[in-house]
User: Fold Major facilitator superfamily (MFS) profile domain-containing protein from Fusarium sarcochroum.
Amino acid sequence: MAPNHGEDIRIVVSQGQEQHSHNGFHIQTAKRSGKSYGTDNNTAITEENLTREEALTALTADEEQKLLRKVDWRLIPLLCMLYLVKKLDETNVPYIIAEIPSNLLIKRFKPSRWQSRIMLSWGIVTACTAAVHNTTGLYACRFFLGLAEAGMFPGIILQLSYWYRPDEIAVRCIWIYAVGNVSGILGGLLAYGFHAASGAGGLSGWQWLFAVEGITTVLLSFAVLLYLPDFPGNTKWLSPIEKSFLQARLPQNSPRSSERDFVGREIVRALKDKRLWLFTLSWALMTCGKNGIDFYRPTIIANMGFSDIATAQILNIPISALSIILILFLGYSANSARYPLPLYPIGCTGVIVAMYSILVVYPNDVGVYIGMIIGIACGTAWFPVMWPWRAQTVNGATGSAFAIGFVNSYGQVGDALGPQMFQERYQPKNQVPFGLSMGLIGLCGIVCGVLWRITRQTEGDTRKHKLARLEAKKNDEAVLDDVSDRDLNKLRD
Assistant:
């Protein structure tokens, strides 16, 4: 049937099935059967003898909600802990080098083992940093720390893609980011406390900080190994029906554990997709424009008269607190699907440009501090609303791992380039680097606008599908049709 643009069509198909069409996007629903499939009998049903429609209708709407909550409680707290520990200590260059290979290996070795290995290795390196006595040793530790940490965060995003639909990732992502940004508060308090304990046991405050963080990370790595779920298909605390349901409800382009560990043509396909390069460019522009000023943050605080390290750390807390508030607000708003997802990151870039203009026009200490707080907080909130958008446009297990790892690694070049703008010749007002940062964020907003145009069909279909699912749940129905990557098909044509 040809699509009838501009109006909704509601047609009874057969046996309680209904089909809807809105602006060319077809939505077919069917009544859910619930426990008639025997969800309490783990031996009656296997994953293999259910069709996709049977799996999608096997649970009622209430049962689906309870299942997702069960998955959330098993998965999200551990992923939040992973990100929190990582945020307490970050690095750059070797992280970029090893990010993609690490993400490609996570499926082969399973997330619980691979993420535990990452935590164990970086915990050991962090603890060893406490024994450093010169700059050469420090540089060596930082290099190996980046190498050890590589793949942890893109592995988190990839693992979410195995469990949730792209339009459901936002609300999970915001909690991971929100807890991760507690590191700014926790790190400031720890630095303040260990500074006061300097000299105890013959160690300086910074040595105690590295030793305690490293040992804690090593211990937590064993918790990840034992308790982090891998994939829906091999999780013991799910019934066969639940396993089938969780996998059947994913879009056709989502990664699945049943796929081969490595498919080279998916990498080639990803490299030919212009969206990969535009997403990476937007990441690089944002990290460069945001992290340059973030790197200069201690100097801004010192210029206000707070040169004591411990006190300066306390003044970093408002940035983390505001970041958490913005992340939660934007994430839950995006999760409602009321507005197109790209509006949120584009709106963030607009606010950042406005705040950075304060740094250029009114370069006094208080004005710079206020502009910095709001600008950096909006920049931090930009990432968790970008990841669900990126997840909509990845394909396959290998392609998803590569694309997510590629964006997160090469998009981080701004971490290295951004601080280079703040050179001594521009001090004390730094209007030139502030202006450059503002321009980079403005370009990021433009790139996001171009991406919105290129991904508008897939993004729009994803949002309509979520609204259709929410409506269908009211009638205890399941949406049978799914979103296809129509933008990718158009790019191929």
Q: What stands out?
A: The radius of gyration is 24 Å.
